[in-house]
Amino acid sequence: MRIIVLGGDGYLGWPTAMRFAARGHEVWAIDNYLRRQMALETCSEPLFPSPNLIDRAAIFHSVTGHTVRPVVGDCTDPATMFSLFAEVRPNVVVHYAEQPSAPYSMMGFDTARRTLRNNLEATFNTIWACLERAPDCHIIKLGTMGEYGTPNIDIEEGWLDVSHKGRKDRFLFPRAAGSLYHTTKVLDTDLLWFYVRLYRLRVTDLMQGPVYGISTSEADHDRRLMPNFHYDDIFGTVVNRFLVQAVAGIPLTVYGGGGQTRGYLNLNDTLQCIELAADNPPQPGELRIMNQFTETFSVNELAERVVEAGRSRGLKVAIRAVPNPRQEKEHHYYNPAHSALIDLGLQPNPMTTEVLGEMLDRVREHADRIVVDRILPRVSWNREVSA
Ligand code: USQ
Fold it and tell me: Are 248 and 315 in contact, with CB atoms under 8 Å apart?
């Protein structure tokens, strides 16, 4: 297949580009370094520096013989997208080109606006680049489990059958996001659904939970191919953060009551899911939505697991609840369906003590680079009203 990865320099984008190239597909990876720029602006640089996209692709080629074609460009620029899609005529586009951080989107007007514009425009341009230049292309869009929020009923995979006054119909499952970032993903879904209905696009929208991991079979060829790894409060996801805190000797920062429950998955399972989606495309005119996670945990359970993994590596890890900087339910019902990807063949890699222990070993190699000031939450959901 001819595959374009949008956001190909990111935590998920780069490992995805390598995986598809290693499977023998023709791969283009486009990125404008927005996440690197935002990380610099907010003093949130990752645990270790990563070569830029062009250098990464060259290293990958020299180490494995496989090719990722790097494109430094902005997916919010229609001309860039249209010419790329005209040149490549992709069978599949994997759309990761979004500002991925909930806290970043909640810092204030400028970061909220940047999140809204970047994420919606990248999605809008992807839709139109397909319509105009590659109409049969399968769009694989990364959504988030956070689109659903934490409703007091079971969460289905994207859709809900509703009976109302004796009649029945199927609707998008109600969405109630908890940050502006998550809200942009809700808006993306609606935009895609509109164009699927109107112009018979073929779209897979993946509702993914927080990802953890640092190692993939391609990245393990050479340390310079590792995905960027954030542990700060803005770009770091909770498991990756807790592992760095464990190594740094900082008590794990459980926000509030710690009963917040989410669906988690290993980075390697993200790669499996994307491959399964690409290998099993939906029909034209179908918006297929799948919930992409393998296990659910509360934050308290995650913290206990990291304590246990630390113990297995001789680390004494403490837990300390800190005031929750977010507005979210700290105790709630959570029972999301997630069988569609299993039915396609997903074989989950569970979060075992050994998996976390191996991540601890990797993080320890970079222990001297941990900047403690980036760990406690710096962004609050509660707005100070300015005059
Ligand atoms: N949390 C803590 N302590 C921390 C960091 C986070 O208790 O030090 C809590 C949060 O309050 C939240 C949960 O852990 O309840 C998950 O937080 P997170 O920062 O790992 O995840 P989130 O901000 O929701 O966003 C991440 C990715 C985002 C993706 C989303 C999936 O950054 O791109 O869409 O996970 S989901 O959470 O299912 O919406």
Answer: no
- Cα 235 to ligand 1 centre (Å): 10
The predicted structure's pLDDT at residue 383: 82
Q: Consecutive 10-residue runs of the chain (387 residues): their mean pLDDT?
A: 98 98 98 98 96 98 98 98 98 98 98 98 98 98 98 98 98 98 98 98 98 97 97 97 98 98 98 98 98 98 98 98 98 98 98 98 97 96 74
pLDDT at residue 386, as a whole number: 57
Q: Which of 234, 229, 237 is nearest to 211 (CA)?
A: 237
Mention every residue, 6+ apart, whose C-beta is less than 8 A from residue 30: 4, 5, 6, 7, 8, 70, 71, 72, 73, 75, 80, 84, 97
Nearest to 34 by CA among 107, 88, 130, 111: 111
- Residue 344's CB is within 10 A of a number of other CB atoms, namely 15
Contact 125, 81 (CB under 8 A): yes
Q: Is 316 tagged catalytic?
A: no
Q: Can you read off the two tokens belonging to residue 340?
A: 């569609």
Asked if residue 146 has its Cβ within 6 Å of ligand 1, the reply is: yes
Ligand 1 geometric centre to CA of 324 (Å): 12
Q: What are phi and psi of 155, to 5 degrees?
A: -90, 125
Task: Look at the pTM and tell me if it is higher than 0.90.
Answer: yes
Query: What's the confidence (pLDDT) of residue 387?
Result: 54
Query: Which atom, in ligand 1's list, is nearest to the CA of 238?
Result: 20
- State residue 17's pLDDT score: 99
Task: Report the separation in Å between the CA atom of 330 and the middle of ligand 1, taken as the mean of its atom positions.
Answer: 13
Known catalytic residue: 168?
no
Measured between alpha carbons, how far is 189 from 159 in angstroms, rounded to an integer? Answer: 12
Catalytic-residue membership of 333: no
Facing residues of 187 across strands? none
- The best mutation among 107, 255, 319, 324 to test binding of ligand 1, ranked by most ligand atoms within 8 Å of the C-beta, falls on 255
